[in-house]
Design brief:
cinnamyl-alcohol dehydrogenase; six-stranded parallel sheet; 13 helices; metal-binding; Quinone Oxidoreductase, Chain A, domain 1; about 375 residues; Rossmann fold; zinc ion binding; oxidoreductase; binds zinc ion; NADP
């Protein structure tokens, strides 16, 4: 059902006091900001935020790299916490439940994409931060003490899924899970290539193994070999710049999840795919990508793209991850460390996700300013 007039008016009343870590301009420096959140609507879930992951796109948004940033900005779309209150129509959640919120907090809820469960394709999708909500206010993300979200956009954390290690799955996890599901790259015995071993790639490796696939990491960093094969459980590791290693796996892969956000030559990578193989782009290189048609046409290759996933798929992903013990590898940091964490993230100096311990540290930071 689409947002009602009553809901839009109701959302105007932002009566609830909260605090967040906000950037005031494209320098991207975060400091505490007192904000308000809307009062509890009939379909709303009120969440005390305990953890929030730091996604690479937070960095882009803070620095206005995509030229659409609104300030003050409170980023964060890998939110995990506890329900404190629910609206009178909410049946899925109750106070005390462990829940999460990912990249979106609303959509039109009435278009074809929404009806099919792909709220992520809805033209009216409202992002968790830096987006204009139905009531005209700009959304603030998870680097904050609490959030109020329509129940459709809240997922349940299974008992076995820790809030801190699970938070990054709400963006990084669904971003790789959804294309694996819809492009048939979730079948035992198939050979999956994971291009790039960062926040997205390391989770793709774990899902590939959970699906019973053979997983090969393709990376430009030889230094990541040991942990790819060890802790992350990949079956093989090849250095993309090593012509011999690349040649040895020519035409062996059923699919490649391409997580790289840089403009790299794609033709050699298509050579790794079997006939009918698929490359799925989930990274966002700045410049248009170049592919000689022959690389696609000669043996029926597919190039596809994918962006996050729908809400029912996000819940399914989290349930499956809990069942198979798939979590993100994280470094938990306090709110006082967030600017340093962002600097380190810009240099890819993290294995593989920073997660802010909002619940235990945000109040302390907020108390140090006016
Ligand atoms: Zn993200
Ligand atoms: Zn829609």
């Amino acid at each position: 059902m689409a947002p009602t007039a009553a809901e839009q008016t109701e959302h105007h009343q932002h009566t609830r006091k909260a605090v967040g870590l906000a950037a005031r301009d494209d320098a991207g420096h975060l400091s505490p900001l007192a904000i308000t959140r809307r009062s509890t609507g009939d379909d709303d879930v009120v969440i005390k935020i305990l953890y929030c992951g730091i996604c690479h796109s937070d960095l882009h948004a803070l620095k206005n790299d995509w030229k659409n940033s609104r300030y003050p900005m409170i980023p964060g779309h890998e939110i995990a916490g506890e329900v404190t209150e629910v609206g009178k129509n909410v049946s899925k959640f109750k106070a005390g439940d462990r829940v999460g919120v990912g990249c979106m907090v609303n959509s039109c809820r009435s278009c074809e994409s929404c009806d099919k469960g792909f709220e992520n394709h809805c033209p009216g999708m409202i992002l968790t931060y830096n987006s204009v909500d139905v009531d005209g206010t700009v959304t603030y993300g998870g680097y904050s003490s609490m959030v109020v979200v329509h129940e459709r956009f809240v997922v349940r954390f299974p008992d076995a899924m820790p809030l801190d290690k699970g938070a990054p799955l709400l963006c990084a996890g669904i971003t790789v899970y959804s294309p694996m599901k819809y492009h048939g790259l979730n079948v035992p015995g198939l050979h999956l290539g994971v291009l790039g071993l960062g926040g997205l790639g390391h989770v793709a490796v774990k899902f590939g193994k959970a699906f019973g696939m053979k997983v090969t990491v393709i990376s430009s960093s030889p230094g990541k070999k040991e942990e790819a094969l060890g802790r992350l459980g990949a079956d093989a590791f090849i250095v993309s710049k090593d012509a011999d290693e690349m040649k040895a796996v020519m035409s062996t892969m059923d699919g490649i999840i391409n997580t790289v956000s840089a403009n790299i030559p794609l033709t050699p990578l298509f050579g790794l795919l079997k006939p009918n193989g698929k490359m799925i782009m989930v990274g966002l290189p700045e410049k248009p990508i170049e592919i000689p048609p022959f690389a696609l046409v000669a043996t029926n290759k597919t190039l596809a793209g994918s962006i996050i996933g729908g809400m029912s798929d996000t819940q399914e992903m989290l349930d499956l991850a809990a069942k198979h013990g798939v979590t993100a590898d994280i470094e938990v940091v306090g709110a006082e460390y967030v600017n340093t964490a962002l600097e380190r993230l810009a240099k890819n100096d993290v294995r593989y996700r920073f997660v802010i311990d909002i619940g235990n540290t945000l109040d302390n930071v907020a108390a140090t300013t006016e």
